[in-house]
Amino acid sequence: MNKRLADLPKLLDVWRKSIGGAARRSVKGLSEAQKFWLGFAFFCLATTFLISNPFWRGASAAEQYKEGDIARESIVSPADIFVTDFDETERRRNETRQGVRPIFTFETSRAEQALQGFRSAWENLQRRTDTANANAKIAANVKTNANSKIDAASTPQWAGAGGAEVGKVFSARKFSANELEAVTRVLRESAEGSIYGDQDRQYFQSEIVLIDRLKPNQQSIVKMPESSMTALSAARDKLRDGLRQIRSLSEKEAEAFNQTLAPLVQPSVIYDGAATEKARGAVEKEIAPVTIALKRSQKIAAAGDIITPEMLAQISALRSYSSSNRQSNRFFGLLAIIIALFLIAWKFVQHSGNVSRLVLPERKTFALFGFVVVAQTALMAAFFRLAEFTAAQNLSAPLNDAALWSYAVPFAFGSLLITLLADRRTAIFTGFFLALVTGLIAPKSLEFALFCVIASAVAVYGIGRYRSRQSVTTAGALVGLASAATAVALLGYTQQPFILNTVLLAIACGLGSGLITAAVTAMFLPACESFFGILTDVKLLELSNADLPALGQVAMRAPGTNQHSHAVGQLAEEACRTVGANALLARIGALYHDIGKTAAPDHYVENQHGKNPHDRLRPAQSAKIIISHVTYGIKLGREMGLPQRIIDFIPQHHGTRT
């Protein structure tokens, strides 16, 4: 046949073969028992890690709280805890440091130093001026060519601030004693008092400590220093304005005096950073570390309590305790619980025997069960985390309640998948198993465990015979309705007020849980069918489609064989119903049991019309052709990617003789 089944082998079949091949190579040399227990260990470790993974959830949901939040669940200390509250200790030390007054030093002689600096520079200028005048007289009397050199050497130089330009202004005329006295008075008035540098204003507080540099043992407390002291910029502005008020000075002369006197006005109150830090460090060391002591089973907060700063400190202590080496204790304790649960599941599978409808062996059934448990645990961990993140993005109720958003978790996914792939008994056990896992991972253990049980039961018993892919959608709709009703019931059980927005959000999340359950199940179902080699009723019905190339070739090239196959299928189906076997599997297998006859259809009696080709052949050759339809049919079925259970019908309908 040139054409093969249109969708077989699918991409999933290729993946199954590649993954299966890699797995077989990795465990090559191990016995069946060793392979089983290796897989058992993987399921236990994977489930435990997904539940206790710190990347999904912290030590407690309580660590997401802020001051003023409402406790969504009771927070209880798991053991006697005695830890240092580093945050509170640091806060108290910072408060103590801030309570230490900044220290400033006071220079009482700043004004005198300014006056002395001006007088010294002015007297130096006067001496230079007198010398220059004397040299000028000598030059006039001698009348030599050197007079220019003498004048240059005798030109007065101003030694203060402002440079040569200021010196020229001061040398242009002789200033009277009254003028100099007025300038000196303005300088004294501007430079005296408590002057602080503008850059030190940032260190001011309501009170500062002022220490006289000449008398370091004497300290004074200055209140409101910014209002009682003068900024350096204000003092220099006062100097400039005072000089301009001297009427005998020109504007140019007043500016020259300002240029030379302004640098002499310096801060007399200076911030002593080293002394301040030393004082703060001394008082900081006196603050003892703050410790938090919690007793075993001590309730930190009850559900509904308003989170206070004291509660936040205790929650922080609980987080520190949980993130210490006790985290490993929790992991190994949880691992022991998960191992016990999986052992119970294995014993359940063993005592249940093979799944009759699909004849799944015990170990394959347990492998399917373990895969479903790990997959749903990963989904629940991810969805609970997503619910917390969504609630954290909202500030108003009820959108900030992570528990309400968590009703959208697809709790029924595992049970629905097992119902479709195995049987209801295994599926309902899976539902209870996953309810226990939900209790270990959910923020409100009991509520969500009940939610999981109810949703799983609806998924198991709400779906009828799985005869179409639409059955998954139907099951999802039923699960959504049941989840919405359960969510509202849990609101009443937890005594939450039936506010319209809260009820609508709970119903919406419950319906969303059903939709997500159907979507995820529809995605995993074909993969599990292919990977575990499971023939569901839908898969069998798809193989009965007469439009498939394989069946189309049989109908076209071997119409007698096609009619014979359908007749055999009807007989086998009726016989299976009588004895309680899988009637659908028998009918579909009958449709393919003689596909090998398409190689030479006219050599089989049901396809002959007149002449018989065997009349011209030797008996041995005829027998070989008749028998070859079995071996050719097996080869053809494998090339087309038929499930092994269907291929088994080809040799088995003739027994073992061929």
Short description:
This protein is mainly alpha-helical and 658 residues long.
Write structural notes for this entry:
Residues 1-9, 56-62 and 144-154 have low confidence and may be disordered. Among the domains are: 31-59 and 324-537, no CATH class; 75-98 and 288-322, no CATH class; 544-652. By secondary structure, it is mostly helical. It is built from 27 helices and ten strands. Strands 6-5-3-8 form a four-stranded mixed sheet. Strands 1-10 form a two-stranded antiparallel ribbon. It has a two-stranded antiparallel ribbon with strand order 2-9. The two termini are 23 Å apart.
Q: Features of this protein?
A:
658 residues, 4-stranded mixed beta sheet, mainly alpha, 6% strand, disordered N terminus, two-stranded antiparallel sheet, 10 strands, single chain
Give the biggest beta sheet.
4 strands, mixed
List unreliable stretches of 5+ residues. 1-9, 56-62, 144-154
C-alpha termini separation: 23 Å
Strand residues, percent: 5-15%
Q: Share of helix among residues? A: 55-70%
Number of DSSP E strands: 10
Structural class of the helices, strands and pairings? Answer: mainly alpha
Helix and strand topology:
Layout: H1 11-26, H2 32-52, E1 75-76, E2 81-84, H3 86-99, E3 103-106, H4 110-142, H5 147-154, H6 163-171, H7 177-191, E4 195-196, E5 207-212, E6 215-223, H8 225-228, E7 230-231, H9 232-244, H10 251-261, E8 269-271, H11 273-285, E9 291-294, E10 299-301, H12 309-322, H13 326-352, H14 362-392, H15 402-405, H16 413-421, H17 424-441, H18 445-461, H19 470-493, H20 500-531, H21 537-543, H22 549-557, H23 559-579, H24 583-592, H25 619-640, H26 644-647, H27 649-652
Parallel strand pairs: 3-5, 4-7
Antiparallel strand pairs: 1-10, 2-9, 3-8, 5-6
Helix pairs in contact: 1-20, 2-13, 2-14, 3-11, 4-5, 4-7, 6-10, 7-9, 9-10, 13-14, 14-16, 14-17, 16-17, 16-18, 16-20, 17-18, 18-19, 19-20, 22-23, 23-24
